[in-house]
Amino acid sequence: MKLLQFYKYQGTGNDFIMINQMETTVLDGSETALIQRLCDRRFGIGADGLILLQPKEGYDFEMDYFNADGRRGSMCGNGARCTIAFARSMGLEQSDYYFFAPDGPHRARLSPEKEGWIEIEMSDVQEVEHGQGYYFMDTGSPHYVRFEDKPDTLNIEKEGRQIRYNERFAAKGTNVNFVSASPDLPLQVCTYERGVEAETFSCGTGVTAAAIAYTLQHELTQKAAITIPVETKGGPLEVRMKKKEKGYSKIWLCGPAKEVFQGHLYI
Description:
- By secondary structure, the chain is of the alpha+beta class.
- The protein has helices at residues 32-39, 77-89, 156-164, 204-217, and strands at residues 3-11, 14-20, 49-54, 61-67, 96-101, 104-110, 117-121, 129-131, 134-138, 142-148, 175-180, 187-193, 198-200, 225-232, 235-243, 248-256, 258-266.
- It has a 17-stranded mixed sheet that branches.
- A hairpin with a 4-residue loop joins strand 15 and strand 16 (248-256).
């Protein structure tokens, strides 16, 4: 039996269990059942995912991310901001960071304009599939985007599950985003997340996908920087990007990340 010290963080309501492994390894990532139990909201701490903060040569740190189902996940934008905030609380106080995430290297920085905001540079998006009534792309995680007049009135879990488990996506899964169709900003985004298999209050990679889809939907394809404010059920975020000849680059996901509580647990 081991005593586990944990920390709970949230970024616009997307919440994570954080474990500091910069000096001592507590989990190696093979503990699927344990991680699933820790993330359970009735029998554990409760969270949308679990993140291990650990060293990696050539980087300030590595963010090892696990979904609530206990399995290693793909990139998590809100989780990345929470990891920066957590790393700072553990003594790694810098204005800029270079870290390794599930989809590769990322830069991050503290917002020079908004107190408490953290900016994460996301991976470039090279291709966006535009089908009948939807957009599909990989923003570090796969995302299906559908525009709706009033996404917050939908049964997100029912509608999202139908798409996530349809014939095309059932094997590997996809996250599903329902986005306000109005040209007015901020965008309203509701997300069903694979791995959690439920609606979450916010999804950073989903908000990024929604913002990119919005620029295509409304033909905001100028090469100058584009800024899209977004409102999720957990609060506001902002996405900045630049259109390239093919795809998007210099994509920054910006928003808050805060500690909720900390504690100890025997495992």
